Amino acid sequence: MAQDLPFQSIPKAPESISSKHLLIRMIQGVGFRYYWATEGLRKEDLKYRPSKSGQSTGKTLEHIYGLAMVIANTTNNIATLRPPQKVPQEFKLLRSETLAFLKEAADQLLKMNPKEIEALQVIFNRGGEQSKFPLWNLINGPISDAIYHTGQVVSFRRSSGNPIPKGVNVFLGVKN
Q1: Which string of b and e fits 37-67 if b means at least 16 CB within 10 Å?
Q2: Separation CA 66–CA 176 (nearest Å)
Q3: DSSP letter string, the chain
Q4: Tens digits of per-residue pLDDT, 87-146?
Q5: Regarding the domain delimited by 19-175, which CATH topology (the fold level of the hierarchy) does it fall under?
Q6: Would you list the domain boundaries of the chain?
Q7: 82: which strand partners?
Q8: Directed axis angle between helix 19-38 and helix 57-75, to 10°?
Q9: Cα separations (Å) of 72 from 41, 92, 106?
Q10: pLDDT at 1
Q11: What residues contact 1, with CB distance under 8 A and at least 6 apart?
Q12: Distance between CA atoms of 51 and 38, rounded to whole angstroms?
């Protein structure tokens, strides 16, 4: 287990509930689930695909990387180039950069005041054309999609004979 990667556990909850804290917690939840869904993956797990036409675990992780990039770019008010460029092909780098994007996003939101968060937009740049969406779309889009696909990784690795480590408790955000 790499001790320097974020989201081995979910940080202690803040004392108050706010839209900022809810958004941060959702991102931390993605990070925690992703950390443990990807901990200990083997080469054969990365190649696993549920059917000939299905996407492999490795390709699913590349997609989650792109989603994490959108989440981080949004919190920094930066346009995301689509399709993503230079997706790491080496698993350890892909994993660490995905987790770093999520950590960056949560840390950036923590520094922001409510007005700054309200002003954020999800911005895409496709072929020089920009499209902008309200921050709400970050929740029902990339954040929810990352949770969904991380669940696929958990299912795929179970099917390839390598279930997630015992003791991972997503409700409490810890590994016992």
Answers
A1: bbbebeeebbebbeeeeebebbebbbbbbbb
A2: 30
A3: --TTSS-SSPPPPPSS--HHHHHHHHHHHHHHHHHHHHTT--HHHHH--SSTTSPPHHHHHHHHHHHHHHHHHHHTT-PEEESPSS---SHHHHHHHHHHHHHHHHHHHHH--HHHHHT-EEEEEETTEEEEEETHHHIIIIIHHHHHHHHHHHHHHHHTT-PPPTTEETTTTEE-
A4: 999 999 999 999 999 999 999 999 999 999 999 999 999 999 999 999 999 999 999 999
A5: Four Helix Bundle (Hemerythrin (Met), subunit A) (1.20.120)
A6: 19-175
A7: 126
A8: 160
A9: 24, 19, 8
A10: 47
A11: 8, 39
A12: 20
The tokens of 20 are what?
A: 């900022």
Token pair of 140 as six digits: 């029902």
* Token pair belonging to 26: 């959702």
Extract the tokens encoding 4.
């320097």
In angstroms, the CA 135 to CA 132 distance is: 9
